[in-house]
Design a protein that fits this description.
By secondary structure, this protein is of the alpha/beta class. The protein is about 20% helix and about 30% strand. The chain has seven helices and 26 strands. The protein has a six-stranded mixed sheet, with no helix packed on it. It has a six-stranded mixed sheet with strand order 16-13-17-21-20-18, with helices on both faces. A five-stranded mixed barrel has the order 22-24-23-25-26. α3 runs parallel beside α6 and α4 packs across α5. It is elongated and about 95 Å long. About 40% of the residues are buried. Its EC number is 2.10.1.1.
């Protein structure tokens, strides 16, 4: 059977995936959430012209040449606008954030003045508007500054606060259940019997899903029996998760029961086996409203497939407009031989050349069980099916891995 191309598999995974229900969260809890509606400023910032410096509010014509001697008629602090206006030959003492008084159009910083009682000598000429932040220079009421479908950064929260929003409309987090399968798996810290393998995949996968904003439930490790695998699938359904991610038991072995158990429960399998390395035996389907991604067991395969398929899916379910990964161009740090029919995702180190170009150098062994090299890699080099051999220095496409 012909293997499904990676692009078709990704399209199938993303088919009809969009933002889930919406909810309001307090601004404090908005970091990393995805806005469900465009957000308009509820106020103008700054609402009035304000001083950017500590100094004196003056009329520009009075300080066009220096020295200039002015009479100080009062003081304005931040938060307390002055009742007086500044007339010819007058100045008001002002502090950073103070509202520019009537009549003034310039601020002279205090370093350019000499104070003597109620007189101030301006020692440097200043031009009109100097050190004044005009009303609305940041934004105006009604301006749409944050867009639906964008993940909120730390700076976005400060902006939303400045716009006077105490709460934000966001999409709810996708709920994910993660299940590992395999009789040979034991938890980290165990004393291992011959043939046992330390369970590792879930740690990276859960961290990856959480960093994409998912609520993750760990369903633990199911034994390689239909009963155990079926019970875990039913638990995921009972939890009402949006996505079940399984690892292991995906290939052709006698103990690879995941697909069988999923189908017996009524899962419609959209695909099983894709033209990709690592990760050929990946599967995807739907069991009612629950999406299922069946990842291969090999640690590198499970991670690379999760990065390529689960991450865009979680982004789409989070309501993000921009769910896809965006490859960057780099130059190869070492030569590559011709590729076969499977799209290859090579673990690679990333550095920069003297000319400032990204250089991607494949790690020395690409076997899909090698955790140390996966951890050391910073990117995946994408090799299209049947790509010809490439010299060091040739352009390649890479996807940077998360920190
Ligand atoms: N005859 C064939 N054999 C295999 C094929 C094939 O097409 N024909 N595909 C190979 C490829 S490619 C992959 S990838 C693996 C994936 O197989 P499974 O998904 O069935 O994975 P397992 O057999 O369950 O495990 C593979 C390997 O990874 C270890 N493992 C599994 N889960 C974990 C975990 N959570 N943490 C750490 N390590 C884990 C497991 O012990 C095995 O060593 O199949 C090839 N075979
Ligand atoms: O796809 Mo498997 O991941 O090549 O080892």
């Amino acid at each position: 059977m012909a293997l499904m191309p990676v692009a078709d598999a990704l399209a199938a995974v993303l088919h009809s995936a969009g933002g889930l229900a919406t909810e309001a969260v307090a601004l404090e809890d908005g970091h990393g959430r995805v806005l469900a509606h465009d957000l308009a400023a509820l106020r103008t910032q700054p609402p009035q012209a304000m001083s950017a410096m500590d100094g004196y509010a003056v009329r520009a014509e009075d300080v066009a040449t220096a020295p200039a001697r002015l009479t100080v008629i009062g003081e304005i602090a931040a938060g307390r606008p002055a009742a007086q206006s500044v007339g010819p030959g007058q100045a008001l003492r002002i502090f950073t954030g103070g509202v520019i008084p009537e009549g003034a159009d310039t601020v002279v910083i205090q370093e350019d003045t000499v104070r003597d009682g109620d007189q101030v000598t301006i020692t440097e000429a200043a031009r009109r508007g100097r050190h004044i932040r005009p009303a609305g220079v940041d934004f105006s009421e009604g301006d749409i500054l944050l867009r639906a479908g964008a993940r909120l950064s730390d700076r976005d929260l400060a902006l939303a606060a400045g716009m006077n929003h105490p709460a934000l409309p966001v999409y709810r987090r996708p709920r994910v259940a993660m299940l590992a399968t395999g009789d040979e798996l034991v938890m980290p810290g165990s004393s291992l019997q011959p043939g046992q393998i330390v369970y590792s995949n879930g740690y990276a996968l859960r961290a990856l899903a959480r960093s994409e904003g998912a609520d993750v439930t760990d369903l633990g490790i199911a034994a390689d029996t239909m009963d155990a695998t079926t019970a875990a699938i039913r638990r995921a359904r009972d939890l009402g998760v949006d996505l079940l991610v399984t690892t292991g038991g995906a290939s052709a072995g006698d103990h690879d029961l995941v697909k069988q158990a999923l189908e017996a429960e009524g899962t419609e399998i959209a695909f099983w086996k894709i033209a990709m390395r690592p990760g050929k035996p990946m599967m995807h389907g739907r069991l009612g409203a629950m999406r299922v991604i069946g990842l291969p067991g090999n640690p590198v395969s499970s991670y690379v497939c999760a990065f390529l398929f689960m991450v865009p899916l979680l982004r789409a379910l989070s309501g993000m407009r921009n769910a896809m990964h965006h490859p960057e161009t780099a130059s190869l740090g070492s030569p590559l031989s011709a590729n076969d029919q499977r799209e290859d995702y090579l673990r690679a180190y990333v550095s920069s050349s003297d000319a400032g170009r990204l250089v991607a150098t494949p790690v020395d062994h690409q076997d899909s069980s090698l955790l140390a090299r996966l951890s050391a890699a910073q990117a995946l080099i994408i090799r299209p099916p049947h790509a010809p051999a490439a010299e060091a220095g040739a352009n390649c496409q890479i996807l940077k891995l998360p920190l």
